[in-house]
């Protein structure tokens, strides 16, 4: 039945919205694994790859939303219109995750945020979108195929300032707001941003001096912040320098292990179905983060 052929179903789906393939480098290492490994080596940070196929004349291929990762778009074929906006002011939705706006039940109205860039990407064009910057896409009289490389040195991978704090903590205290991101965002989105910030690891974010010293300075500065965090001061553990140094060493080892796991997942040689490889990769990454904390 010609209507049941995958190519026909893809065309039908992409005529209404974007068809998304997550974990493209793991699912198709012979096609996309090399590009993912090159990105890993370039950034020395966790890098994922998604593939997007969109038909022509799709007015809202992706509504305005934000992402937790640094986004690098590579236009492979056709063309796609991208609109990039300034990060919305927190009072528009104080409890919303600034790195997941426009997702789930949250709606991000483009009319309420300032447009910084409105551009049509064509074949071989590259666009960088910082984490937390809303963006939306559409197509006109041509279809589009693009790759999105996402670099994510965040809490998701155990590489944020809060990851260091948790690794250095000797015990879990009661009513710790940093254990509940939603509570913390309700307290103060800016403090949430401070603790979710990446540690100085990798080729571009790496510290010029001693990593331990950089970690001590950043964590002490963050824990000393005045304002809403003061309410919870008694419930926040103040780790010793030795505890922070030990945690910094663990995070560095963890960072290397995450990159090694990604290189393994993007390499050839695993004959299992793509779904099994992806599921195994996600489980391995989760195990690494659990072991750190």
What does this structure look like?
The protein has helices at residues 6-14, 24-27, 29-43, 161-168, 181-187, 189-196, 202-205, 211-223, 241-266, 274-292, and strands at 18-21, 47-54, 62-65, 70-85, 115-122, 126-129, 135-138, 144-151. Strands 1, 2, 3, 4, 5, 6, 7 and 8 form an eight-stranded antiparallel beta sheet that branches. With 293 residues, the protein is α+β, with helices and mostly antiparallel strands. The mean pLDDT is 87. The protein has ten helices and eight strands.
The residue ranges in which pLDDT falls below 50 over 5 or more consecutive positions are none
Which geometry do the CA atoms define? globular
Strand content: 15-25%
Structural class: alpha+beta
* Biggest beta-sheet profile: 8 strands, antiparallel
Sketch the topology as an H/E string, one letter per element: HEHHEEEEEEEHHHHHHH
Rounded to the nearest angstrom, the distance between the terminal CA atoms is: 52 Å
Task: Provide the residue-averaged pLDDT.
Answer: 87
| Tally of separate helices | 10
Q: C-alpha Rg, in Å? A: 21 Å
Q: Name the helicity range.
A: 25-40%
Beta strand count: 8
Structure in a nutshell:
By secondary structure, the chain is of the alpha+beta class.
Describe this protein with a few key phrases.
293 residues; alpha+beta; eight-stranded antiparallel beta sheet; 10 helices; 39% helix; globular
């Amino acid at each position: 039945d010609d209507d049941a052929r995958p190519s026909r179903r893809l065309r039908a789906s992409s005529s209404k919205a974007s068809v998304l393939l997550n974990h493209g480098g793991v699912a198709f290492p012979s096609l996309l694994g090399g590009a993912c490994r090159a990105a890993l080596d370039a950034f020395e940070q966790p890098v994922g790859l998604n593939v997007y196929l969109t038909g022509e004349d799709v007015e809202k291929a992706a509504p305005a939303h934000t992402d937790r990762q640094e986004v690098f778009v590579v236009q492979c074929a056709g063309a796609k219109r991208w609109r990039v906006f300034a990060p919305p002011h927190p009072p528009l939705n104080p409890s919303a995750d600034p790195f997941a706006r426009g997702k789930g039940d949250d709606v991000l109205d483009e009319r309420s945020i300032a447009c910084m860039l409105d551009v049509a990407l064509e074949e071989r064009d590259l666009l960088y979108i910082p984490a937390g910057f809303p963006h939306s896409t559409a197509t006109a009289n041509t279809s589009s195929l693009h790759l999105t490389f996402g670099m994510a040195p965040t809490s998701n991978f155990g590489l944020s300032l809060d990851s260091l704090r948790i690794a250095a903590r000797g015990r879990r205290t009661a009513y710790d707001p940093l254990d509940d991101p939603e509570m913390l965002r309700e307290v103060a989105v800016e403090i949430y941003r401070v603790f979710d910030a990446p540690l100085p690891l990798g080729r571009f974010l790496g510290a010029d001096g001693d990593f331990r010293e950089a970690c001590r300075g950043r964590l002490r500065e963050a824990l000393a912040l005045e304002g809403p965090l003061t309410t919870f001061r008694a419930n926040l553990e103040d780790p010793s320098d030795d505890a922070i140094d030990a945690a910094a060493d663990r995070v560095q080892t963890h960072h290397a292990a995450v990159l090694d796991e990604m290189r393994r997942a993007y390499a050839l040689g695993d004959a299992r179905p793509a779904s099994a490889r992806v599921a195994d990769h996600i489980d391995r990454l989760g195990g690494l983060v659990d072991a750190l904390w």
